[in-house]
Amino acid sequence: MAFFDKLKSKLFKSSSKIDDGLEAIVEDGGAVDTPDTDDALPVDQVMDTPDIAVEALPDAVEDDAAPLPADVPAKAAPEPVPLRDTIQPAVPDLPASAPAKEAARKPGLMGRLMGRSTAAPVVRRVLDDEMLEQLEELLISTDMGVDTALRVTANMAEGRFGKRLSVEEIKRLLAAEVARIMDPIAKPLPLYSKTPQVVLVVGVNGSGKTTTIGKLASQFKAAGKNVVIAAGDTFRAAAVEQLQVWGERAGVPVLTAAQGSDPASLAFDAMGQAERDGADLLLIDTAGRLQNRGDLMEELAKIVRVIRKKDPSAPHNTLLVLDATTGQNALNQVKVFQEISDVSGLVMTKLDGTAKGGVLVALADKFGLPIHAIGVGEQIDDLQPFDPQEFADALMGLDPQ
Ligand SMILES: Nc1nc2c(ncn2[C@@H]2O[C@H](COP(=O)(O)OP(=O)(O)OP(=O)(O)O)[C@@H](O)[C@H]2O)c(=O)[nH]1
User: Where does the AAA+ ATPase domain start and stop, copy by copy (predicted)?
Assistant: First the structure.
């Protein structure tokens, strides 16, 4: 619960945008429940979940939850990541608590017969084409993207046209749809039995690569893993210093090279040190200068070539770090980095304080790449495992269920 509160308060900007927008949409053409309208449309009927949503829920959750034998071959056998506060994805509840909540707010039978109201009135609006369009626009404004917003709202509307919905009910229905899209891609960073496991971290400058590596190193170290960091962005002195600070804090060695020197040669040395140290994980930072794509592609390719001399199966993960505040531009970055490297999973940073959190839904919908973790601040604990239902609820501004 504490985790949820934190995520929710940190995703405040996305959720408050949806909050405000939904209030306005429902009030525009909605009406306060009266005894007549209550009787006409029982809440539990409104909240019936279409079959499509029910079927997709349980499957995806089991994948990563099963513990794995220790001696399985590399890449075949991920074990759950030992991130601090790891929360295994829960089977998303069907959106059943909204009716219960709102029913609880309604006056009892006697109260209604006597015309007494014991709670604030609930405004509901009939779901029609116009309202659906408004909902689409609202989701698009959180950077969910047109295609994804259309799909989310269409699924949510299925079987509910002509029914009267309240803000709370719409939030729960939309959250269920979002969680359904996100569920298959919520996967902790897999850990392999083969060590050192080499994790190449890529992303444009400023996306949060350095910070994410620092947080990952600290959290893995705290979980008992032996970690080595290679400060592979040899052009940016500030990035190297930042990594050294994280390294000191976490008690993790950070390998650096002279400014402007060849990152591939640093990566090679780091492989050597990781092997000598018996490290479990080698995290390699890389440059993010997309201005010259050809150069960056060649630089990454060279790093890969060189580390494969020591381990032909490396890198075992290529983590793309994306900045949520860039909104739809993040989609473009995935495309570009998929072209120049073998992206195996995503970390989305800066979800705190942005109204563009919906972009994560668009990413999940479009690329289906695993989301290993999300950044919700600059502190070590602000890198969290990705939980689809909590994310969906926080995005919609829902209270904990
Ligand atoms: N609010 C917030 N800030 C973050 C988060 N992750 C990183 N930052 C900040 O974003 C800024 C850029 O982060 P870096 O880790 O330096 O990004 P980078 O990709 O390594 O960028 P270069 O060092 O320029 O290559 C820093 O000020 C970080 O503190 C996050 O999840 N939330």
Answer: 195-342
Q: Does residue 194 line the site of ligand 1, with CB under 6 A?
A: no
Q: Report yes or no: 98 and 168 within 8 Å, Cβ to Cβ.
A: yes
Q: Is any ligand 1 atom within 6 A of the Cβ of residue 210?
A: yes
Predicted-assembly ipTM surpassing the 0.90 threshold = yes
Neighbouring-strand partners of residue 229 = 254, 283
Range(s) of the chain covered by CATH 3.40.50.300 = 197-396
Nearest residue (CA) to ligand 1, atom 29:
378
Q: Of the CATH numbers 3.40.50.300, 3.30.200.20, 3.30.70.890, 3.40.50.720, which one belongs to the domain with range 197-396?
A: 3.40.50.300
Q: Phi/psi of residue 165, each to 5°?
A: -125, 145
| Per-residue pLDDT tens digits for 228-246 | 999 999 888 888 999 999 9
Unique residue bearing structure tokens 């072209």: 339
Task: Yes or no: say if 315 and 281 are a contact pair by the CB < 8 Å rule.
Answer: no
Enter the pTM of the model. 0.79
Ligand 1 contact via 357 beta carbon (within 6 Å): no
CA atoms of 227 and 247, how far apart (whole Å): 10
Cα(82) to centroid(ligand 1), Å: 22
How confident is the model over 93-116, as pLDDT tens digits?
Answer: 334 444 444 444 444 433 333 334
**How does 71-104 read in b/e, with b if 16+ C-beta sit within 10 Å?**
eeebeebbbbbebeeeeebeebeebebbbebbee
